[in-house]
Write a structure and sequence with these properties.
The protein is 79% helix and 0% strand. The chain has one domain. The chain is elongated. α3 runs antiparallel to α4. The chain is an all-alpha fold.
Protein backbone atom coordinates (compact mmCIF):
# COMPACT_ATOMS: atom_id res chain seq x y z
CA UNK A 1 0.00 0.00 0.00
CA UNK A 2 2.87 2.37 -0.27
CA UNK A 3 4.99 3.42 -3.20
CA UNK A 4 6.32 6.61 -1.63
CA UNK A 5 7.16 5.49 1.89
CA UNK A 6 10.33 6.71 3.51
CA UNK A 7 11.92 4.10 5.81
CA UNK A 8 10.97 4.41 9.48
CA UNK A 9 13.44 4.10 12.30
CA UNK A 10 13.68 0.72 13.96
CA UNK A 11 12.14 2.00 17.17
CA UNK A 12 9.15 3.53 15.40
CA UNK A 13 8.56 0.50 13.21
CA UNK A 14 8.54 -1.91 16.17
CA UNK A 15 6.43 0.11 18.63
CA UNK A 16 4.13 -2.24 20.58
CA UNK A 17 1.27 0.26 20.17
CA UNK A 18 1.79 0.44 16.41
CA UNK A 19 1.88 -3.35 16.19
CA UNK A 20 -1.30 -3.71 18.28
CA UNK A 21 -3.20 -1.20 16.15
CA UNK A 22 -2.05 -2.80 12.92
CA UNK A 23 -2.91 -6.27 14.23
CA UNK A 24 -6.47 -5.18 15.13
CA UNK A 25 -6.84 -3.47 11.77
CA UNK A 26 -5.71 -6.64 9.97
CA UNK A 27 -8.24 -8.77 11.89
CA UNK A 28 -10.99 -6.28 11.00
CA UNK A 29 -9.94 -6.27 7.35
CA UNK A 30 -10.14 -10.08 7.27
CA UNK A 31 -13.65 -10.08 8.76
CA UNK A 32 -14.84 -7.39 6.35
CA UNK A 33 -13.34 -9.16 3.32
CA UNK A 34 -14.94 -12.49 4.28
CA UNK A 35 -18.42 -10.99 4.70
CA UNK A 36 -18.08 -8.80 1.61
CA UNK A 37 -16.89 -11.72 -0.54
CA UNK A 38 -19.85 -13.82 0.56
CA UNK A 39 -22.31 -11.06 -0.25
CA UNK A 40 -20.73 -10.33 -3.63
CA UNK A 41 -20.61 -14.00 -4.56
CA UNK A 42 -24.33 -14.31 -3.73
CA UNK A 43 -25.22 -11.30 -5.91
CA UNK A 44 -22.59 -11.54 -8.66
CA UNK A 45 -24.79 -13.14 -11.30
CA UNK A 46 -26.02 -9.73 -12.40
CA UNK A 47 -24.93 -6.16 -11.89
CA UNK A 48 -27.87 -4.73 -9.95
CA UNK A 49 -28.03 -1.91 -7.38
CA UNK A 50 -26.94 -4.13 -4.46
CA UNK A 51 -23.94 -5.47 -6.35
CA UNK A 52 -22.99 -1.97 -7.49
CA UNK A 53 -23.19 -0.75 -3.89
CA UNK A 54 -21.00 -3.63 -2.71
CA UNK A 55 -18.44 -2.82 -5.40
CA UNK A 56 -18.21 0.81 -4.28
CA UNK A 57 -18.16 -0.05 -0.56
CA UNK A 58 -15.04 -2.21 -0.84
CA UNK A 59 -12.59 0.55 -1.85
CA UNK A 60 -14.29 2.98 0.53
CA UNK A 61 -13.63 0.54 3.38
CA UNK A 62 -10.02 0.45 2.18
CA UNK A 63 -9.94 4.26 2.50
CA UNK A 64 -11.28 4.07 6.07
CA UNK A 65 -8.72 1.41 7.00
CA UNK A 66 -5.90 3.48 5.52
CA UNK A 67 -7.05 6.53 7.51
CA UNK A 68 -6.82 4.48 10.72
CA UNK A 69 -3.41 3.25 9.60
CA UNK A 70 -2.24 6.84 8.94
CA UNK A 71 -3.34 7.97 12.40
CA UNK A 72 -1.50 5.09 14.03
CA UNK A 73 1.62 5.59 11.92
CA UNK A 74 1.69 9.33 12.72
CA UNK A 75 1.24 8.70 16.44
CA UNK A 76 4.14 6.25 16.40
CA UNK A 77 6.50 8.17 14.12
CA UNK A 78 6.02 5.86 11.15
CA UNK A 79 5.91 6.73 7.45
CA UNK A 80 2.58 7.87 6.01
CA UNK A 81 3.13 9.17 2.47
CA UNK A 82 2.44 5.82 0.88
CA UNK A 83 -0.72 5.42 2.90
CA UNK A 84 -1.92 8.71 1.44
CA UNK A 85 -1.26 7.24 -2.01
CA UNK A 86 -3.43 4.28 -1.04
CA UNK A 87 -6.21 6.60 0.16
CA UNK A 88 -6.13 8.49 -3.15
CA UNK A 89 -6.11 5.28 -5.23
CA UNK A 90 -9.00 3.75 -3.32
CA UNK A 91 -11.05 6.96 -3.42
CA UNK A 92 -10.59 7.22 -7.18
CA UNK A 93 -11.46 3.53 -7.51
CA UNK A 94 -14.70 3.99 -5.58
CA UNK A 95 -15.69 6.79 -7.96
CA UNK A 96 -14.54 4.76 -10.97
CA UNK A 97 -16.53 1.72 -9.88
CA UNK A 98 -19.67 3.80 -9.37
CA UNK A 99 -19.33 5.02 -12.95
CA UNK A 100 -18.28 1.64 -14.36
CA UNK A 101 -21.25 -0.11 -12.76
CA UNK A 102 -23.51 1.82 -15.14
CA UNK A 103 -21.61 0.40 -18.12
CA UNK A 104 -21.55 -3.28 -17.20
CA UNK A 105 -19.35 -6.04 -15.85
CA UNK A 106 -16.43 -5.58 -18.29
CA UNK A 107 -16.04 -1.93 -17.27
CA UNK A 108 -16.12 -2.91 -13.60
CA UNK A 109 -13.44 -5.56 -14.16
CA UNK A 110 -11.20 -3.04 -15.92
CA UNK A 111 -11.46 -0.49 -13.11
CA UNK A 112 -10.97 -3.18 -10.47
CA UNK A 113 -8.04 -4.59 -12.41
CA UNK A 114 -6.24 -1.26 -12.55
CA UNK A 115 -6.88 -0.79 -8.83
CA UNK A 116 -5.63 -4.29 -7.98
CA UNK A 117 -2.40 -3.68 -9.91
CA UNK A 118 -1.64 -0.29 -8.40
CA UNK A 119 -2.79 -1.11 -4.86
CA UNK A 120 -0.91 -4.41 -5.02
CA UNK A 121 2.33 -2.64 -5.85
CA UNK A 122 1.76 -0.19 -3.00
CA UNK A 123 0.93 -3.03 -0.56
CA UNK A 124 4.03 -4.95 -1.59
CA UNK A 125 6.27 -1.96 -0.87
CA UNK A 126 4.61 -1.09 2.45
CA UNK A 127 4.91 -4.70 3.58
CA UNK A 128 8.60 -4.69 2.71
CA UNK A 129 9.17 -1.46 4.62
CA UNK A 130 7.24 -2.76 7.65
CA UNK A 131 8.93 -6.15 7.77
CA UNK A 132 10.41 -5.39 11.23
CA UNK A 133 6.89 -5.48 12.68
CA UNK A 134 6.70 -9.17 11.83
CA UNK A 135 4.00 -10.90 9.83
CA UNK A 136 4.60 -8.73 6.78
CA UNK A 137 5.60 -11.50 4.38
CA UNK A 138 1.92 -12.26 3.92
CA UNK A 139 1.37 -8.61 2.93
CA UNK A 140 4.28 -8.73 0.49
CA UNK A 141 2.96 -11.91 -1.14
CA UNK A 142 -0.57 -10.51 -1.14
CA UNK A 143 0.64 -7.37 -2.93
CA UNK A 144 2.38 -9.44 -5.59
CA UNK A 145 -0.69 -11.65 -6.10
CA UNK A 146 -2.93 -8.57 -6.27
CA UNK A 147 -0.80 -7.17 -9.07
CA UNK A 148 -1.08 -10.40 -11.06
CA UNK A 149 -4.80 -10.73 -10.32
CA UNK A 150 -5.38 -7.17 -11.52
CA UNK A 151 -3.88 -8.04 -14.89
CA UNK A 152 -6.12 -11.12 -14.98
CA UNK A 153 -9.27 -9.05 -14.25
CA UNK A 154 -8.34 -6.63 -16.99
CA UNK A 155 -7.88 -9.53 -19.44
CA UNK A 156 -11.12 -11.19 -18.31
CA UNK A 157 -13.03 -7.99 -19.11
CA UNK A 158 -12.43 -8.64 -22.79
CA UNK A 159 -13.75 -12.22 -22.71
CA UNK A 160 -17.28 -13.45 -23.26
CA UNK A 161 -17.27 -15.00 -19.78
CA UNK A 162 -16.66 -11.82 -17.77
CA UNK A 163 -17.89 -12.41 -14.23
CA UNK A 164 -17.82 -10.61 -10.90
CA UNK A 165 -17.47 -13.83 -8.90
CA UNK A 166 -13.70 -13.73 -9.37
CA UNK A 167 -13.66 -10.44 -7.42
CA UNK A 168 -15.23 -12.23 -4.45
CA UNK A 169 -12.47 -14.83 -4.48
CA UNK A 170 -9.84 -12.11 -4.81
CA UNK A 171 -11.23 -10.18 -1.82
CA UNK A 172 -11.49 -13.29 0.33
CA UNK A 173 -7.92 -14.33 -0.46
CA UNK A 174 -6.75 -10.81 0.38
CA UNK A 175 -8.60 -11.10 3.68
CA UNK A 176 -6.87 -14.40 4.42
CA UNK A 177 -3.51 -12.69 3.91
CA UNK A 178 -4.54 -10.00 6.42
CA UNK A 179 -5.50 -12.76 8.87
CA UNK A 180 -2.19 -14.56 8.44
CA UNK A 181 -0.31 -11.31 8.95
CA UNK A 182 -2.31 -10.50 12.10
CA UNK A 183 -1.69 -13.96 13.53
CA UNK A 184 2.03 -13.77 12.81
CA UNK A 185 2.21 -10.32 14.40
CA UNK A 186 0.43 -11.69 17.47
CA UNK A 187 2.92 -14.53 17.76
CA UNK A 188 5.87 -12.16 17.22
CA UNK A 189 4.48 -9.82 19.93
CA UNK A 190 4.16 -12.69 22.42
CA UNK A 191 7.69 -13.87 21.64
CA UNK A 192 9.06 -10.34 22.13
CA UNK A 193 7.18 -9.97 25.44
CA UNK A 194 8.54 -13.30 26.71
CA UNK A 195 12.13 -12.34 25.82
Amino acid sequence: MDTLVEPASASASTSPRASATLRKLYFLRFAFAAVWAGLLFATSSKLGPLTAALLVIYPLFDVAAAVVDVRSAKANGGPVRGLYVNIALSTLTGIGLALAATSGIPAVLRVWGVWAITAGLVQLIVGALRRRLGGQWAMIVSGAISTLAGASFFAQAGSNEASLSSLAGYAFLGGVFFLVSALRMTRAGKAAAAA
